[in-house]
Each structure stands twice: as structure tokens, then as C-alpha cells.
Specification:
- Chain A: It comes from Litoreibacter roseus.
- Chain A: Keywords: Membrane, Transmembrane, Transmembrane helix.
- The complex is a heterotrimer of chains A (499), B (315) and C (151).
- Helices cover 44% and strands 21% of the residues of chain B.
- With 315 residues, chain B is α/β, with parallel strands linked by helices.
- The longest helix of chain B is centred in the first third of the chain and has 23 residues, at 2-24.
- The radius of gyration of chain B is 21 Å and the shape is globular.
- Chain B starts with a helix and ends with a helix.
- Helix content of chain C is 72%, strand content 0%.
- Chain C has helices at 11-30, 36-62, 77-97, 99-114, 121-145.
- The longest helix of chain C is centred in the first third of the chain and has 27 residues, at 36-62.
- Classes of the chains: A mainly alpha (499), B alpha/beta (315), C mainly alpha (151).
- The interface between A and C is large, with 68 and 71 residues.
Chain lengths: 499, 315, 151
């Protein structure tokens, strides 16, 4: 293992990791230009390198790209990847009130810690942890998605009922297209382009970013509050202090992120949301969440970066990739002549350890790179005149929706959803519940249909859904999440009566 | 007059295009569209080809993903793409015969005729290593004793795996329950996690899972080198050779000589011993169906799948 | 600002409820052609929409005296509509006009819509240069780095 560390630390590999992180962060910060794309483009170049260097470059770009998503979430309220949804909930309010620099620094430190925990888990615990991936079958995914949907109740900032309706609308959007599981063609209006369903990333860009763009144009005020006080620099000490005070949150989010990252069908979005809602549920000041609570950013960013290491666990041990970038890296491994499987950690251990070392180094490099880039991104956004910001944002939305699958129809879908999103925001409907429905709906539905069919084959459908221990635990968590706000409300009222 | 001029212009353009193109095609990188998410067999084999493409063609190939509707989204778009030979697309069978036969998916099989079919992944029935089914016969006996209780996981509904499961039912005269998953990997995860009894999948998945699984039978003519101990369906008395065939297609209007050139390039990559070695190790079986034999090959497949398609439609 | 004082306008809630009920009803109507298992989720989501819409209506009437949680500003509708048209046209023309032309036109229109101050020659030149740099930068990123085939 020390040898792997040594070979990973060669000057060439370090330079590679350094530029990989920068490139990844840049690409990831542009919504729609995702980690998948960055990694996919890089793969052919790695064929020319020796396997270890190639893998280090891929890992560095991937790590950077996942982190880069935080910038657009914080600075323009646009999670460029589903993993950053929860980051936007508090990140953007913070940026709005002039604390964008602090938010960026927090997200950077959180990502580094989460990334380290995930990578260390991959290094030391991969084979035993991979059993988590196998313990989750269709029923468990169904309940996990339902649990995720129940978070709408905790996450919606305004009217919970409207959040619920929004979630249902998201579920309906998720039904559009030809169902991979079941084969029905639904709500396509005869349009072939809709057979593949509503594309998630263009929908995210539309639902979140287009309303921001419209507001920028129609309202005369500035995009972000300008601080009257002098620019405070990185606010690193302040951020570290906040992290220290939230150490429980950091630890919990890292563990949750790693564990949920191991589940192939869940990934960064679920991890970020679950960590966020747990942070809110256990917080002493839950009412701050959604209005710029630092704990919200810490939870979301720590957890979604931890999924990077977590996601490689089933990829390498079981040959089952957790996310599309994992799948591309898996493909690159196969081409390099590496065989995945439990034996990988014994027979080709040096390659694996070099790769994990590369991930660790990239994660550590993210600290200086992220801090500096984040600072400049924030300064740029806050200082750029609005008349230059709006065309840039507009161009980015178009590119992002187009580039993900090189499809102009996706741009149209993005803009239509965006305009609708702005209109219904005026009557109190937010984007987040809709997005939750859109992302979690397919996971829930596939799990439901599969579990129903398997239950039917076993002759007992109710037992399928309600007797498995993991399912029961998730159901209990769902109930807990749903009732906590009411209990808190009641407790507050009781206190109010006493004083 | 105007019409005449346009006609002249188009002809001139076509002539120059065809002559200049075919001679030195390709002169710039070629976009290679994979109609699935990364990580599946289509992606992995394209990545293997990518490593050799520039040696053969003198230009890079750039892989791009357009997943959706089991491949149908991309195939339905194929003929809207520029027909200059710089966009090639992966196309799979039986998918491209199956999908239009069952539902309106926005394309017909004729729209996506491949320029070259370069390999197939044989169908394979895979169970967990600790499964009570030691042989295919054990499985069939159990399925006969308890109709419907045998669960086959596979990738997608009305897909290649689904067709294979239906054809297996017909051959072995049993009733199984097919459970669709969003790809081969999730199906294998469900198998390893003991949620389903068997996976109707490909040899490649059996290799990826290593000794966590046992392969019961493989749908090839002869035994696969990676699984010397696994019988073929033929040995077990079922006349069944099938799998997912993958090829490369181009928009319909691509000039014939460019199509031929692409066919030659893919064929040349297929002839590279190192490339062959890598594919065989991973459970693929190489085949060579160049563009001039394609029409007959497609007709054979249509005939082969007809009965299974009827059964799927009846579902 | 809406300027309607403390009493709450229930119009937004009623509009939302109407939207939800219509959408839910349509979703359920469409399930007639679906298989049994394929119809479960659309039916459930549609039912949720309808129930939510009904509950929203009832609550709106019940709470009509409470102050609204929405601060309704009268938006600049002409700008909003113009921007929507620009964005939609941008999306539709992306293919026929090509990426560069449609994006340059689109961005120029967005700048024009955002512009509020006086247009000095210097400002116009600065913005033109900025747009050109943006365009060149992103075009090269897509074409040369990410190797995307751009129309």
C-alpha cells in the first residue's frame, strides 16, 4: 500500500491530479456540463497513459466535477447535478444576503471531509460494505424513494400542501415516456422525442435557473446583495469554526453519504437530501433551514462528496456501477485489462490502491483549488454588471440543456418547464418538490413494480412490502420525518403557553 | 427554373460530397453515439473499438451517450442526424426488430439497418453460486412443479432479455415470471442480493460477477472459452443460439461508399487479434456481418424472433 | 407590491387548486390505455393532485382572513413575455440557424431586455466584446475540449 502511495505521488501524477481537479471543478460548475461528460471525454486520453496515471486523472476530474456543482447551486440557485439540490436550498439564500463567500468556503471544506471519508471507506472497508448494495432490493428502493418523497414535508419552505401538490406533479412528469419497467408508453402526446421521458438535467436547469434568469431581467434589483463592508477574504477561520461546531452534522453526513452512495440506484441526490433533512430534524434552529442555514450546506456538500468514494465500492467489488461516471470509469478499467470483483482487492490490489490514493490526493488538492476558484467565482458573480450576467446565464442554460445529450429538443423542454416554474412560483409552488418527484418517482415506481411481480411469484405480495427488516426501518424513519415538524410545533406552543 | 437550379445544385453537391468524402474519409473525428447509459455492453465494446479506431481510420472516434426508452430514443433520431458519415451509432438486435414490432417507437427496423454487425453477447442463464439449481434441468423441474414461482431478472420490458425469457418458457414448456430492471447491472445486483432466483442475461455479466455466480447454460453453437465447463443449450437438447447482436449504423442517406468504408473500418478492427482477445476474455463472441450481407441477416433474425414476438405481444 | 392590505387574496390559491385538479383529472383519464401495473403511479399521483387541490381550496376559504404568505409583486409583464418569447425562439432556432448565430442573437436580445440605464457607446462596445468572448470561450469549450458536435 505504501508503494501505491509512492507511485501515486510521482510529480507527473500530482500535476495530473492538480489539473484534473481544476478542469473538473470548472466543468462541474457549469450546469449541464456534468461529471459524466468530463469523465467520458477524458477516457480516450487515459488509454495512452499507464493505468495508474489514467485512473488518477479520471478520479481527479470526477471529484472536481462533483464539487464544482456547488458553485452554480450557491451562486445562481441552479444545481447543475441532482446531487447539489439540497446545497441550493440554503446556499442561494446565503449568497443572496451577501454570504456567498462563506457558503463557498463551507461547501469546499465539507466536500473535502466528505470526500476523504468516502475514499477511506473505499480503501479499507470496500468488500464488507458492498453487502449494503446487495441488501437493497426492489422493495427497499421503493421505500427509500417514498422516504425521500416524505422529505417534501420537511423541505418545503412555504406551504406544505403546495409542496405536496408539487411533488405529485413531479411524479407525473416522471411518468412521461416509455416505462423501462412495464413497457407502457405514457403521456407522450405522440411525440417520439418524449419516449425517453423528461430529461432530468435539462429539467433541473429549467425549473431552477430560468426563474432566476426571468427575475433578473424583470426586476431592477441586483442579483446578489453587495456587501457594504470590505470583502472578507476566504472567511476560512469563520468557516472552520462553524464546521467544528457542527462536527456531529459533518460526521453524520459523511457516513450517510458513504452508505447511500453504495446503493447503485440512489446516489448523490438522495444522499444530499437525506443528510440535509437529518440536519434539519436534529437542529436546534430548524426554522433557519431554507433561509441560509450553514448546517444545510455543510450536510448536503459533505454527503454528496462522500458518495464519490461510496459509489466506487459496488463498482469495483461487484462490477455494478453506482452512477454514470462510475460506469464510464468501470469501462475504462475493463479496457485497461482490469477485472472487477472481490478478487480485485487481492489480485490486482496495487492498481486499486493507486486509484484510491489518487482519489485521496485529488480530494485534498480540492481544498486549495476549491477555495481559490470559489472565491473568484463569487467575486465574478457579484461584480459583473447585470447586463452582462443575464446573457451569460441564458447562454449557460441553453448550452447545459443541449450538451448533456446533444439534443436541441431538450433546450425547448428546459425553457418550457422554466417558464412554467416561474409562473407557478407566483402562486406559491416551489421547484424543489417537483424535482424531488421527478428524480425519486422512477426509483419508487421501478421498485414497486418489481416488488409486486416478485411478491406475486412468491404468492404473497403484502409480505413482500411489509415484512423485510430494512423496509420496516425505512418506513419508521418516514413516519418519524413526517411527524417531527408537528411535535416541534406543539412543543413550541406548549412553551409559549408556559411563558 | 428555380426548381431546376436547386436540383442541379443538389446533384452537384451530392456528387462532390460523395467523391470527395469516400476517397479520404474520415478527415475529422467521428462521433459514435451509444443509445444507452455508460457501463453496459454497448458502451464497453465501443470503448474497446475506440482504442483501435484511430490506428485503422487515422481519426479519433468520440463516444457520446443518448440513453432513453431502451435505445429507441436514439434510433428514432438517427435519420435526423447529418448523413455525412461523421455520426455513427450503435444499434442492437433483437431490440431494433422487437421494439417497432410491438409498439410505435418512432422508427422502423429499415431505418436503422447496420453497416456492420461485429459481435454478439450470448444469452446465458445465471444463478447465485449458492443456488439450489445445479443444472438447467434442476431449474426446469422446479419451474414445472411450481408454475410462476421461477423469477427471471433481466434488462427492460419487451427487451432482448424479455424475449429470451419468453422463448425459454416456450422451449422448456414452463411458466416463469419475468422481472424487468433498468439495465443488466441492476438485474445482476438483484440476483446477487437474492431477490430473484435467476438472471436471464448475457455471458458478459457472468464474467463480471466472477465466482459469486454460476452459469447454467449459454446460447452459443460451441462452448465459450471463458466458460469451458458450462454447457450450451444445444448440448442440453434445446435448439437455441441467440443473444444481443451489436452493430454500427449510419443515417439512411449516407452515401453508399462511405457506408462501405465504415463497414471496412469496423471489420478491420474486428480482425485485430489483440482486440479479439480482449472481447473474448470478457465473454463476447465476435461475428462479422458486413454491409453487403446485412439484408439477408436481418431477414433471418426476423424469422427467428417471430414466434417470441407474438408471445410478448400477447402478454 | 400588491397593496391589497392585510386581507389575503385567495386567487393564487384557487388558481393553484384548479391547476392541480385539472392536471390530476387529465392524468387519471389517460390511464385508460395503460396496463394495470403501469397505471398505478399515474393514478396515485393524479389522485394526490386532486386531493391536494380540493384541500387547498377549502383551506383558502377557511384562512381567508389570515395574512398571505405570498408577497405578490406586480411583475414587469411586457419584459417577462418578451424574454419568454426570446428564450423559446432561441430553443427552436438552435438547429436551423446553428449554435453561434442563434446564441448571439439570443444573448443580444437578453442584454437589450435587461438594459435599464442609458446606452452609451462605450457600454455597448464593452458588452459586444463581452458577448463575443463568452461565445468564443464556450464554443471552444464545447467543440475542442468536450468534442460535442454543435449544430
Amino acid at each position: 500500500m505504501l508503494e501505491s502511495l509512492w507511485s501515486a505521488l510521482s510529480p507527473f501524477n500530482l500535476t495530473l491530479a492538480f489539473f484534473g481537479v481544476i478542469a473538473g471543478t470548472l466543468i462541474g460548475s457549469l450546469p449541464g456540463l456534468s461529471a459524466t461528460m468530463a469523465v467520458a471525454v477524458l477516457v480516450p486520453f487515459t488509454f495512452a497513459m499507464d493505468p495508474a496515471s489514467g485512473l488518477i486523472a479520471l478520479g481527479a476530474v470526477y471529484t472536481g466535477a462533483i464539487y464544482g456543482g456547488a458553485y452554480s447551486a450557491i451562486l445562481v440557485n441552479t444545481p447543475g447535478t441532482p446531487a447539489a439540490i439540497a446545497t441550493a436550498m440554503d446556499g442561494f439564500p446565503m449568497a443572496k444576503r451577501g454570504d456567498g463567500d462563506l457558503a463557498v468556503t463551507l461547501s469546499c471544506i465539507g466536500s473535502v471531509i466528505g470526500g476523504l471519508v468516502g475514499a477511506l471507506a473505499l480503501l479499507f472497508l470496500a468488500p464488507p460494505l458492498s453487502t449494503i448494495a446487495l441488501a437493497f432490493g426492489p422493495v427497499e428502493y421503493f421505500w427509500l424513494a417514498i422516504f425521500g418523497l416524505s422529505l417534501i414535508a420537511t423541505l418545503s419552505k412555504g406551504n406544505t400542501l403546495k409542496g405536496l401538490i408539487g411533488g405529485a406533479i413531479g411524479l407525473l412528469l416522471a411518468c412521461v415516456g416509455s416505462a423501462v419497467v412495464g413497457g407502457d408508453v405514457r403521456y407522450t402526446f405522440g411525440q417520439v422525442q418524449l419516449l425517453g421521458g423528461i430529461p432530468v438535467i435539462p429539467a433541473l436547469i429549467g425549473l431552477y435557473c430560468i426563474p432566476v434568469l426571468i427575475n433578473l431581467v424583470v426586476k431592477p434589483d441586483d442579483h446578489l446583495e453587495r456587501r457594504t463592508a470590505q470583502v472578507k477574504g476566504f472567511r476560512l477561520l469563520e468557516a472552520l469554526g462553524l464546521m467544528w461546531r457542527s462536527k456531529v452534522n459533518v460526521l453524520r453526513s459523511s457516513v450517510l453519504g458513504t452508505a447511500i452512495g453504495i446503493l447503485p440506484a440512489a446516489g448523490g441526490s438522495v444522499a444530499g437530501l437525506v443528510a440535509y433533512s437529518e440536519a434539519k430534524r436534529t437542529s436546534k434552529t430548524p426554522e433557519e433551514f431554507g433561509k441560509g442555514a450553514t448546517d444545510g450546506i455543510i450536510a448536503s456538500e459533505t454527503a454528496n462528496s462522500a458518495t464519490v468514494g461510496g459509489g466506487f465500492i459496488p463498482t469495483l467489488v461487484l462490477g455494478i456501477p453506482g452512477t454514470p461516471p462510475d460506469a464510464i470509469i468501470l469501462g475504462a478499467l475493463l479496457v485497461q485489462g482490469i477485472r472487477t470483483g472481490p478478487q480485485l482487492f487481492t489480485q490486482q490490489a496495487d492498481i486499486v490502491f493507486t486509484f484510491v490514493m489518487g482519489l485521496l490526493i485529488a480530494t485534498i488538492l480540492m481544498l486549495p483549488v476549491g477555495l481559490v476558484m470559489g472565491r473568484y467565482a463569487f467575486k465574478l458573480i457579484i461584480n459583473i454588471p447585470k447586463t452582462a450576467l443575464t446573457p451569460a446565464v441564458a447562454l449557460l442554460t441553453v448550452i447545459g440543456a443541449f450538451a448533456i445529450e446533444v439534443n436541441t429538443v431538450h433546450v425547448l423542454i428546459m425553457i418550457i418547464l422554466g417558464i412554467i416554474s416561474w409562473l407557478i412560483a407566483r402562486i406559491g409552488f416551489e421547484a424543489s418538490p417537483i424535482v424531488l418527484g421527478l428524480i425519486l418517482g422512477p426509483i419508487a415506481e421501478a421498485g414497486f413494480v418489481q416488488a409486486w411481480l416478485i411478491g406475486g411469484a412468491q404468492g404473497n405480495i403484502p409480505a413482500m412490502f411489509f415484512t423485510q427488516p430494512i423496509s420496516l426501518a425505512i418506513i419508521a424513519m418516514t413516519v418519524l420525518t413526517l411527524v417531527t415538524p408537528f411535535i416541534a410545533e406543539r412543543r413550541k406552543r406548549m412553551k409559549g403557553v408556559k411563558t | 427554373m428555380k426548381r431546376f437550379l436547386t436540383a442541379v445544385a443538389t446533384t452537384a453537391a451530392l456528387v462532390t460530397a460523395t467523391t470527395s468524402f469516400a476517397a479520404d474519409y474520415p478527415t475529422k473525428p467521428v462521433t459514435y453515439i451509444i443509445p444507452y447509459n455508460p457501463g453496459g455492453e454497448s458502451d464497453v465494446t465501443a470503448r474497446f473499438q475506440e482504442a483501435y479506431f484511430s490506428d485503422v481510420a487515422g481519426q479519433d472516434v468520440v463516444i457520446q451517450y443518448k440513453p432513453g426508452a431502451g435505445g429507441a430514443t436514439a434510433w428514432a433520431q438517427l435519420n435526423t442526424l447529418e448523413a455525412d458519415g461523421y455520426t455513427i451509432m450503435n444499434v442492437n438486435f433483437p431490440h431494433a426488430i422487437l421494439q417497432p414490432a410491438i409498439k410505435d417507437v418512432g422508427y422502423q427496423t429499415e431505418d436503422v439497418i447496420p453497416a456492420y454487425i461485429f459481435h454478439y453477447t450470448p444469452d446465458a442463464i445465471v444463478v447465485r453460486a449458492d443456488s439450489p439449481y445445479q443444472t438447467l434441468q434442476d431449474m426446469i423441474d422446479d419451474a414445472k412443479a411450481n408454475p410462476g414461482s421461477l423469477t427471471f431478472g433481466g434488462s427492460g420490458t419487451n427487451s432482448a432479455n424479455h424475449l429470451a425469457a419468453v422463448r425459454f418458457d416456450q422451449m422448456a414448456d414452463v411458466t416463469s415470471t419475468y422481472i424487468p430492471f433498468k439495465g443488466s447491472s441492476p438485474a445482476m445486483a438483484a440476483l446477487l442480493g437474492n431477490q430473484i432466483k435467476a438472471a436471464m442475461t448475457y455471458t458478459t455479466q457472468g464474467i463480471k460477477a466472477g465466482d459469486q455466480v454460476r452459469v447454467l447454460a449459454i446460447a452459443t453453437d460451441e462452448r465459450v472459452p471463458s466458460f469451458p465447463d458450462v454447457p450450451t443449450f444445444k448440448e442440453l437438447g434445446f435448439d437455441y443460439v441467440a443473444g444481443a447482436y451489436r452493430g454500427v449504423t449510419l443515417p439512411k442517406d449516407t452515401p453508399q461508399d462511405v457506408r462501405q468504408k465504415v463497414s471496412d473500418i469496423i471489420g478491420e478492427i474486428n480482425a485485430n487479434p489483440e482486440f479479439q482477445q480482449k472481447l473474448i476474455e470478457n465473454g463476447y463472441v465476435l461475428v462479422d456481418i458486413p454491409t453487403d450481407q446485412m439484408a439477408d441477416w436481418i431477414e433471418e433474425r426476423r424469422a427467428e424472433y417471430a414466434e417470441g414476438i407474438e408471445a410478448l405481444k400477447a402478454n | 407590491m400588491s397593496g391589497q392590505g392585510a386581507s389575503r387574496s385567495i386567487a393564487p390559491d384557487l388558481a393553484g387548486a384548479l391547476l392541480a385538479v385539472c392536471l390530476g383529472a387529465y392524468a387519471i383519464y389517460e390511464t385508460k390505455d395503460m396496463s394495470d401495473l403501469g397505471a398505478v403511479f399515474p393514478t396515485a399521483a393524479g389522485t394526490l393532485c386532486i386531493l391536494g387541490g380540493v384541500a387547498l381550496t377549502l383551506l383558502a376559504f377557511k384562512n381567508r382572513s389570515r395574512p398571505s404568505d405570498l408577497t405578490l409583486e406586480r411583475p414587469d409583464w411586457p419584459r417577462m413575455v418578451a424574454l419568454s418569447v426570446v428564450l423559446l425562439a432561441w430553443a427552436v432556432l438552435l438547429k436551423p440557424l446553428g449554435f453561434i448565430i442563434s446564441s448571439l442573437v439570443g444573448m443580444t436580445a437578453v442584454v437589450w431586455l435587461t438594459w435599464r440605464g442609458a446606452a452609451t457607446v462605450k457600454a455597448v462596445v464593452v458588452h459586444a466584446v463581452a458577448l463575443a468572448i463568452l461565445m468564443v470561450g464556450f464554443y471552444s469549450l464545447m467543440v475542442f475540449v468536450l468534442r460535442i458536435a454543435v449544430p
